[in-house]
Please model this.
Amino acid sequence: MMTRPGKVRWALIIAALALLEAACRLGFFSRQTIIAPTAMAAGAWQALGSAEMRGHILITLASVAQSIGLAIVVGFAVGAALYRLPRLRRTLDPFLASYYAVPAFVFYPVFIVLFGLNRWPLVAIGFVFAVTAVIINTLDGLSRVPRGVRRTAAVMKLTPLQHIFFIMLPAAAPWLFTGAKFAVVYSFIGVIAGEFVLSGAGLGHAIAFAYNSFDNATMYGLMLLLFLIVGGINMQLWIWEQRLYARRGGY
Amino acid sequence: MPGAVDIDPAVPAAEHARSRGWSALADTVLLITGMLIVWQVATLIIGHEVLTSPLETARRLSAIMADPDFPAHSWETGRAFGAALIIALAGGLTIGVALGAHRLSGQVAAPILVALYSIPKITLYPVILLLFGLGISAKIAFGVIHGIIPVIIFTMNGVRNINGVYFRAARAMRLSGMQIASNIIVPAALPEIVSGFRIGFSLTLLGTLIGEMFASQRGIGYMLVKAMETNDVATVMALALFLIVLATAASSVLLVIDRRLHQSVIAQSGDSQ
Amino acid sequence: MNTPSVQLCLREVTRVFPAVDQQKSLHALGPVDLDLRRGEFFSIVGPSGCGKSTLLDLIAGLARPTAGTITFEGRPVAGEVPDGIGVVFQEDASFPWLSVYDNAAFALRRAGMAEKDIRERVDPTLAVVGLQSFAGAYPAQLSGGMRQRLCIARTLVTRPRLLLLDEPFGALDQQTRLLMGDELLDLWRLTDATVFLITHSLDEAALLSDRIGVMSARPGVFIDLVDTAWPRERDSRIVSDPAFGRVTGRLWEMLRGQSLKALAGG
Model:
């Protein structure tokens, strides 16, 4: 029951993997550089079998989850507040856009002193990466509530609470969902980047460790696992989104 | 919300426009002042060994910029970033237009692009290093992979959302493919393209810096990582401030362009009362 | 001035939009005087940009007049929506996240009405606008015209005493407009509501209304109030009545110059 684009996509991916496999086996790439996809899969399988590796993965997922939760809650709140303060929002705009130019994890040492030598600095980095995207999408969604809808709500004389729950939230829901998706993506990026740079635990750390130990099999295996985890979560989010919003006509 | 209360007398247009420009500037100054105050208070609470004060950071930054090595570092970062930006924007634009215009390709590519966007690209760094070796090409590659994807995604969406009527009009005018691309597609999708450029700019800078942080003996990214390792908070913050100011300035310019474009598009399709 | 049968009273109502950004201040409307009788069907015609929609906003309490007074059922209206008013806007105001039935039931549910009572009101109203077989569909699956009919149904279920409509049939074709006009007349007679209709169609105004207000180009003021003297039991077949031609002729006579002015002035 796959759609045509779906079939083409799978064909492309399989072809690319097959090509890579052949190139590696035939020696076009040195094994120090990149290993065959089957070897990557083997490395991933081995990693899953190791209790230590599973521990790393779980600890990363836990920090990511905390970052997502915080980013969504704070992001929605700040986004809604900025929506009600258009002057502040206009002034803040250039800063919001430049937000991602600075690698937030340079502040990792500051966070360590603030929160201690635990996982919280990593959660903080993930949060700092993710929250802005949630704010931007919340703002976007709230501003796009159609004029006719808002005016109708005004005529219906709803209470402020009714207005928020029965009009603004459902109308902005697709954008809020997009914000949540970004929260997931950026939390992963922030936490794992932080682990990569300066941490003793977690998936990012494990990858960096394998790299520094010239253990390409483990390194690529872990990268494959990361890709599958992030890809799997995003796919599930996409499926939910389709189900929720298909009948709205994509809006 | 509707229902504004407007009992004030009419204000002559020119005077009002001028005052609006000034008030926007005043607002920005107010905001920056507010942020500086919050920063100073935070320094006082947390302690200046952990969070350098605004004044100290500014001093450190001017010291850094006065250092004879600084121009070399800036140039190193600048040329890597410049190259990465050109590749990311031009490449992203071309690929985005192609994917947007050819329906099937766009549909095939969209989930792949989203998946690529979601991977913490920092974990691809070992692969990039292994493929490109140490040196400037690795940095450029890193900058490109960060920045090109949002440009592609935004451009693609912009092109896909072009009103079908334009294409029918183009066919009625018997325009060639190239003419359609340059005279219809790019102008019509321009607001989205510029939005993509804004994000691509920031992310390309981020990617270049990260690249420098890990495998370079020169550049601002290298200065950052050295300061992080020696726990030189003042330098970290000074450099971060430098980057923030730079990125905000560039982003403001792009934002002005963005707004002008969106205004002209809206003005064109707006209805009268 | 304030006889019991006057439901809506406008005195010297003016609206000036203050200067903002690059635009000069705009004298959009007025001064306007108007008395709407209870149960009357009143239409406004006028060139584009003359301030008809602004006037509707003011009456509905969605905006405040710069000068003048508006009184609805004896109480002043100033920037607050009074009880008993329903509005159908020009733009699509259907809620995309709710089904047709839930859209129509929305206001009643928020007011706390019981589901059984809601069903008793919503079902026949959806039937009147011809959407009864689409009750489970979503607005995205409907055409623009059907969505507009949904908005009309949604307003009607609240039984407004004054119904304001801003070009509600704009998205519909001519035949459907005539039929919807007949339905509107039916509902008007059934609910005894007062109807205030904005339309750009002279025919529509002439055939539906008891009285028609002709507005000048911006800033809009009433340049004529035409009485049609139609019987209450009327429908679209009065287009064949010779009096109909006289009414539309008179409307165009007043309006033609204003429209040319609006076209030139923009």
User: Anything to note?
Assistant: Chain A touches chain C at residues 146-149, 151-152, 154-158, 162, 166-167, 170-171, 173, 247-251 (CB under 8 Å). The longest helix of chain A spans residues 160-198. The domain at 38-248 of chain A is CATH 1.10.3720.10 (MetI-like fold).
